[in-house]
Amino acid sequence: MDLADGFVRGMRRLASGVCVVTTTAADGKRCGLTATAVSSLSLHPPSLVVGVNRRSRLGEAIKDVPAFAVNILGTQHRKVAEVFAGNVAGIRGTARFDHGDWRPSAEGVPILGDAPANFICKVDDIIERTTHLLLIGAVTGVHTSDEECNLLVYFSQSFSAIST
How many domains does the chain have? Predict the structure, then answer.
């Protein structure tokens, strides 16, 4: 097995939370993608790091916008995750936002209204590495649901649930 194959096999054994990262591009169109490469960076100041493909619409748009949102998905959002991952034929671009309870935040970025949590972030830094960008987001707002929820996770190429 070569290194790339081993890397893929190894990463399939890492369970990750599922998020949809969204922004409003400079042209006013909403864009977003499903992401599992999301992590807290620090508490002081509150910051997140997000990995996105530089060739995605969001990856292209993020350099020209001040803010983005990270929407944590529950199990009821499986279709939203599939749509924003590009796995549903015929649903592209802004049509993705027809799936889910999307609304604008005060900062003008789309947030999923019934998400377990949403983080609004100011673009603090963008680090370019190979095929991806690492977005450093300074968290400017957090919305959390008071509802009990089952979180959506991605493991071994499929979606699963974790109960809270």
Answer: 1
Per-residue pLDDT of the chain (164 residues; tens, 9 = 90+): 799 999 999 999 998 999 999 999 999 999 999 999 999 999 999 999 999 999 999 999 999 999 999 999 999 999 999 999 999 999 999 999 999 999 999 999 999 999 999 999 999 999 999 999 999 999 999 999 988 889 999 999 899 888 76
**Whole-angstrom distance, CA of residue 145 vs CA of residue 106:** 18
The pTM for the full model equals: 0.95
CATH of the domain at 86: 2.30.110.10
Question: CB–CB of 110/57 below 8 Å?
Answer: no
- Answer yes or no: is 123 within a domain: yes
